[in-house]
Amino acid sequence: MIKKSINLTAEGKKELEEELKQLISGRPEIAERIATARAFGDLSENEEYSSARNEQKIAEGRILEIQEILKNAKIIKGGKKDKVVLGATVSLDMGGKKVEYTLVGPTEANPLEGKISDKSPIGKAIFGRKSGETFDFNGKKVKIVEIK
């Protein structure tokens, strides 16, 4: 099986490393909760035990996921600011509405934080464009005001 590299910004890599560190440091607490709940007796109807085991399962799954992402990560650099590339922050005028997005890989995308994937519709539409360029997107005129 060929592993595909995963595009991450340096900031995104740092955030994942921090999350991984927190998850790993939380392992003893979860193990203690499991041990305490196990001491209550019958495990078949022990909600505390089931809850702690489920939490452990989720945490371990996320640890494996983050480790795999980091192992296959390709750190992207912003490069020149003459066109929209991964890692660039772009100010747009979308039909009179001003918005700002940072273009990132799909793993890092979080629209609520203004981080959009290069695979999203707007990400695809702005990728490779230059500052000052105007184009149609979903029936609206969009202008790239600035690339940082």
Task: Offer a quick outline of the entry.
The chain is an alpha/beta fold.
How would you characterize this protein structure?
The protein is an alpha/beta fold and 148 residues long. The protein folds into two domains: 6-75, Transcription elongation factor, GreA/GreB, N-terminal domain (Helix Hairpins, Orthogonal Bundle), CATH 1.10.287.180; 77-147, Transcription elongation factor, GreA/GreB, C-terminal domain (Chitinase A, domain 3, Roll). 40% of the residues lie in helices and 25% in strands. It contains four helices and seven strands; from the N terminus they run βαααββββαββ. It has helices spanning 10-25, 27-38, 47-71, 121-126; strands at 6-9, 73-76, 89-94, 97-104, 115-117, 134-137, 140-147. A five-stranded mixed sheet has the order 5-4-3-7-6. A two-stranded parallel ribbon has the order 1-2. A hairpin with a 2-residue loop joins strand 6 (134-137) and strand 7. Helix 1 (10-25) packs antiparallel against helix 3 (47-71) and helix 2 (27-38) runs antiparallel to helix 3 (47-71). The longest helix has 25 residues, at 47-71. It is elongated and about 70 Å long. The mean pLDDT is 90.
